[in-house]
Amino acid sequence: MSNEFRRGRLRELLAAGRRLRLIEVHNPVSAIIAEYANALDQDSSRSLEFDGFWSSSLADSTSFGLPDIELLGPRKRLENIQDIFTVTTKPLVMDGDTGGPVEHFEYTVRDLERAGVSAVVIEDKTGLKRNSLLGTSVEQRSAPVAEFCEKIKRGKAAQTTRDFMIIARIESLILGQGMPEALHRANAYVDAGADGIMIHSREESPREVLEFAAEFRQVHPAVPLVSVPTTYNSVRAGELQEAGFDVVIYANHMMRAALRAMVEVSREILRHDRTAEVESRCLGIDAILSLPERGVAV
Q: Is the pTM of this model over 0.85?
């Protein structure tokens, strides 16, 4: 698939009114699994699949055994994305952390756009990047609104096509700054040229993101809105979409699932001094050999 087609696919799907589900992938094999994943809905009336991929800074850092503090630069992460693109066809959105210094972000936008990435999400924090789900238990600071708007504007100016999207991620609810501040920032970022807004929350209930969506939609009925229901995981994607969200991202589950499986299997092999007890938890060799052609069939 050409980079041009893949890059424009996300914007095309959103323009057509599609409500999208993206899932985290952290290497080519996880992307192949996500590409082919499908299931019937609860009524068994239609087949469901993921619409695209999410490249997570947390998952990429974990793959290298590094803390999630923006140690891996965008070009290093882009090498992995290009390997993913070699074996898949679906669009990809990249978690761009803070975007780095504005002068760096301009080059990042050009690199991602050229590679065929559909969008980058940048969060409105400054200083040492720490994972948002740590909340106020560690020091995290919001970037000044004017400074973050300038980053958005210069990133948009660096683009060479209209396909690529810059999505602004708002951390106000994570940092306990309240709904008015989150909405103020959303309006400013849209005015600065952001192609979409991601609202983040670490609450176990979806209440505050649903409230944000209702308020945001009164002012911006057509701007793409993104949700990441990692902590408020009891809400269904359909409910979020009915509330006004266009994109739902499952941001780290492929990595978390893989890590748990590897931890458990490695312990069981040591405990039993053989592999017989773990074979039922492992994919068969035949399935692995056929994976590049048709994903995992179990």
A: yes
